[in-house]
Predict the structure.
Amino acid sequence: MAWLPQVSRFPPLRTNLVHGLRFRLAVSYVVFFAVLLGAIGLLARQNLKNEADSDMRATAEADWGAVKLYLNIKNERPYWIVDETDPEEAYLVERLRHVYLFTDADGEVLEDSPTYASIGVDSPGEIRRILSLPQTEGLPQGETHIRRDKDGTPYMIHAGSMVDEHKNKYFLAIGRSLEVPYRAVDGFTRTYLLLTPVMLVLSSMLGWWLAGRALGPVNEVAQAAHTITGSNLRMKIQTRGADDELDHLIDSFNRMTERLDQSFEQIRRFSTDVSHELRTPLTAIRGQLEVAMFTAETPDQYREAMINALEDVEKLSSIVRALLLLSQAESGQLALQKAPLNLGDLAAEVVDQFQIPAEEKGVLLSAALEPGAVAQGDRTQIERLLSNLLSNAIKYTPRGGSVDVRVGAGSGPGWVRLVVADSGVGISAENLPHIFDRFYRVRNAQTNLVQGLGLGLSFVAWIAEVHGGHVDVESKVGEGSRFTVELPTGGDKPATAPAERAAASLHQA
Ligand code: ADP
């Protein structure tokens, strides 16, 4: 039997690094951090660039205003008014003229700076478009845009119109290099890109550490669970008092081992009981045979020894049969063949079988069987249920007592009831809750009755349950006992309870 606790040798607790939860947590953390870093970097870079652009736009527009102070148009040509004695003014004008283009309305270049030439003179069409742009209130006429020279250096250019005293329109464009402000943006990008791997390395180390910290208790639990075997199931894993998910897991785990421990304990008790049960008749048989071998002389003496030994062999067989049935029931192997079963007819048959033993014992056995009590059941098992109840009733009722069997309608529609009542010794309140437990026998020195295996009633409970029914008992010491079994008729409600479930209940009983 595989019921004995197995003490197995576990391999040391080791998890695959790459498939481990810690690794995956750390990687998720790093990936998330990398995406976050990238998004922040892009956003910051764009912000810096927009800032630089709008600064330069404002500067270009301010320059545009300043140009109008120093630039005149005379004889259809640009003419700069500079006070050469003022070096500051000379410098200012020089700077204004650094990126500068002046053309007539047809795009004929009248003056330009070499820098503007390298950007490329605007086409006549473009010039005409800009000249025709309307004047917006509070803003200089024209438009501000970014253009690049041959080397790719960006410039913020403001282009618009100028009018001479004859109302002739001219095209004027001045600009500022964006190289310096963009260099700051590039500098930021470079530094950010350089720092990102460092930050990622640091974050992966942090992620690894954090994941390790978070999973530390899980590993401790796993380690503790690892050391639990069939022989130390009472060992508990300490909760950490955090009342978190892990504590709940530990709690569930501890409760599981507790249940397992109870099952193991039951199995241990079962083994002890079984060996004890088997040993008694075996010892008796051995004793009888030895006595016969050494002392018997006549065939009658031999015969008597053999009869006694056979009785004990019969006892052994019944124990083995009960154990086999128990094992089949527990493993859910006992296939039930359910069919509509007339309980009255069945009870009548069983009562008939028990008439002789009852008479021999001086117990009056009577039956009141209502016709039409039909349950959906396995004939063999229901017969066993009835036999167990009846044999107990007769066994535990002294001479002169009575046993009454009743079959009739149940407590509600869809139920039938079977009652076995006796006027026997009764069961004390302290024993009553346990009589359906396996191997439970009431120890009673006074009655001096031949004790059974303590399995009969546990089978009764199992059979009732496996049929979707239940069994109840009422009893008073000295007055008698009444066992009531209710079974579903199997009409409108399902009467089939899976054998496995009932097997589990039998195991726990
Ligand atoms: P056993 O095979 O030993 O009779 P059971 O499981 O059938 O085991 O019964 C368990 C215990 O319940 C018995 O030891 C007996 O003391 C008590 N018991 C069962 N039926 C009766 C009854 N009708 N009257 C008094 N005691 C009973």
